[in-house]
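quick one: S-adenosylmethionine bound model?
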Amino acid sequence: MHFPEYYIKNDGMQRKNAEDTLNMYIKKMVWKSNEIILDVGCGPGDVTSDILYPLLKNKINQLVGADKSKEMVEYATKTYGCSMIDFKVLDIENVNDCSFYSNQFNKIFSFFCLHWVHNKVDSLCSMHLMLKSGGEILLNFLFINPLAESYKFMDTEWQKYIKDVKQMSHDLDARDEIKEIVIKAGFRIINLESSVKKFTFSDLSTLLNTLKAVDEMYSFLPEHLHDRYAAHVKEKICQTQMVEICPITGKAIFIYIPITVHAIKD
Ligand SMILES: C[S@@+](CC[C@H](N)C(=O)[O-])C[C@H]1O[C@@H](n2cnc3c(N)ncnc32)[C@H](O)[C@@H]1O
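yep, here:
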């Protein structure tokens, strides 16, 4: 995910998801004044700045958006950086990066990022380390990464590229596995919920653009293969149960299972 402009044009579903999650959970969190907040996997920064910040601005001193992609952080800084919002390059899987921020934050948020993170145990331990005592996390991510799912069914021609991408994501087998790693990282779970959701796109190509904006395969594939690969993704995604097309309107419904974890460092 290194193309911030393309991502931002195609992130309506992610924005809606962050908005719904925050509207549900912000009031359940305990707030003091002058808090310092981290948003892990902030991407191009629009969710951090347009959705998270307006809800927090009276409670906080500083909001830091962090992402492992330098391109995303540069775009976010240029577009949304201000005295209250700062953006940093940070890989949540890199314990050394994270230990620099030990006991720094009152809250850590993360939207649509953790399904790309391979080592969720280390990442959660790092979040625990970066939080002050009494700090809270609110994580929202996908139970099944739709692209990782479609990679499983792709033709052999694409498998040699997929091998590199696959290392970036690891689906969890069950809700209990998530529960276990959150607790293992030292958190007390306040709420952990998952449910099937649907997002309606105006048509199938708009849905496919959203997937393309997060598909790491484009970083590995030679450019002359991009169009053929996109056609293959279309074919495979349509064979899964994640997409339904309305035969009358042509609208494309994406079916996904987000997980929300609200937990505290006692
Ligand atoms: C789908 S985008 C989500 C962006 C934004 N949070 C939103 O809701 O629109 C996922 C982001 O997570 C970032 N990411 C993936 N793995 C990460 C890691 N290990 N550490 C930090 N960021 C990561 C990617 O670079 C990408 O920008």
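Strands lie at 35-40, 60-67, 85-89, 105-111, 131-142, 188-194, 197-201, 243-245, 252-256, 258-264.
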